[in-house]
Amino acid sequence: MIYLDNHATTACDPRVVAAMLPYFSTNYGNPGSPHALGQQAAEAVARAREQVAALLKAEAAEIVFTSGATEANNLAIIGAALQHESAGGTRRRIVTSVIEHKSVLEPCEYLATRGWEVIRLPVDSHGFVQWDHAERLIDESTLLVTLQAANSEIGTIQDIRSMAKLAHRHGALLHCDAAQAVGKISMNIFDWPVDLLSLSAHKFYGPKGVGALYIRGGGEDQALTPLMRGGSQEYGLRPGTVPVPLIVGMGVAAEVAGNELTIEQQRIWLLRDRLEKEILKAIPTATVNGDLKHRLPHNSSITFRGVEAEALMANLSTVALSTGAACESGSLDPSRVLLAIGRTHDDAFCTVRMGLGRFTTVEEAQRASKEIIDAVQFLRTLLA
Ligand SMILES: Cc1ncc(COP(=O)(O)O)c(C=O)c1O
Question: Locate the Aminotransferase class V domain: which residues (predicted)?
């Protein structure tokens, strides 16, 4: 298969796998144990924490390991709200956008059932949050603004720096779901002065089942109420024995991403642009979604008007791509992201998402574009 679904997940880098292996059956200690095996594991976790922090230019103490971005988003959003409630705070508004991942929208919906006012900012036709709405709706009653770094379908990269400034001007916290951006574009917490940031290792060539929440000022800062109880691991914010092999893998994945990002980003960018150019040349009615300038370098969301994405995918024998977010793949509804940027229902059903990656070769990209073009042309002749 030619794998063009790197937004859904990425293959684990062989360097990551090699680093993880000893921690399954040789250095298998529990980092909480006082003996040598336990201490070796604790040192490995500490090293990984440094590696993840280095990628974000953060302090190691500001990283809390979780099971992924879903858990990090829940901890950030619900944890901040519960903490504010228990401290007797009076802010009751949370501001987010209509194109967030479910793992942001559903915690917000949960808080709405507890009396919080949740505002979902609309986006423009490129997928950028509408700034006039943000300026009007983020105010002194806002506790938290939660905005994604980059969209998993159309790749649009939000102006997180400006949003952080706006939130801070009103004393609100800024949480950023950076699951799709970390390891794909250069970003750090100096350029993006966020308070909380979620990431997931399997989106940047690390293992599945591990992620992290960056917390400005550190996990001991009492800014969040834990969602689970039962242990003091991860400052009590994420109790339970830490998954040492996964954390070691995430650390190496972060280090590799940090070292290779600039070159990798350019290579994938060029490959993506060439793939898109070939498709658009052969099928001039096809249109690209998202912002062409501020877009994830590996992302390509294309609408082939009149050709249903499901039919197109069924006619691709060696190319693995998708219609949208993997967590919404069971849904029969059109993509809410495409509708939010103004695409019609019909167009939304005729859109595919491609995501190139570290292991996509030039030859694979060429074969993929040919196969996609052939399939679209074949389906169009059937409809003519
Ligand atoms: C933007 C965004 N946030 C959060 C997540 C959730 O990540 P995970 O399933 O690894 O917890 C995803 C996964 O697709 C995502 O794309």
Answer: 2-367
